[in-house]
Amino acid sequence: MVAKGSSTPHFVKRIPSDIREVLVGRKLVISVGEEVVEFAVTQSTQSIRFSLRTSDPTVAKVRLAEAISYLEQYFEALRSHRPVELSHRQLHALAGDFYRAWSQGPDGMKSLTVVPSTGEVIEGPWADDDELLAAVSQQLADKAEQGGTEYRRRTYGPVVDRILAQRNVPSVTPSCRERLIDTFSALNASRR
After folding, report:
1. Phi and psi (nearest 5°) for 83?
2. Which residues pair with 121 in a beta bridge?
3. What is the DSSP string of 85-121?
4. Does the reported pTM lie above 0.85?
5. Confidence class of residue 189 from pLDDT cuts 50, 70 and 90?
């Protein structure tokens, strides 16, 4: 569909009535080409609408098909409680959210930290101390390199699960969760 007064095609999909109430309050993360669209579903939302960000009809058809495929999978996951497989772009967008939530809380205060020896996540604002954050990041990165996959799962898994829940992602496949943990770990390691 092309919006009135625009040369750019738009995606429009009516929200199915059987999952409408479940979707209210959720923020959907949808890949559109090289970008990610975040769409918040409110009580008054009847349809999911966003620009396909291209005027090329061939590219628009591909993006439309990808968005329909993802949303149908997401809707089915809500109906059947099956996990969703996220795209590469969606994984990186969520990993960036994980990192921001871990390193920065509201008002510039750090909101989450991880005890390097146990992987325990500690919540709540703590001193806005960049040196301390750098030291924790360094310890986590060093231990992740030494401890391998199991350490990364134990350390970063709770953070990944928390942000998925906050972003209202119903659930992701085990392989998708592993890729999220690895991407978040790599972002943390690159901070040093």
Report:
1. -75, 155
2. 114
3. PPPHHHHHHHHHHHHHHHH--GGG-EEEEE-TTT--E
4. no
5. low
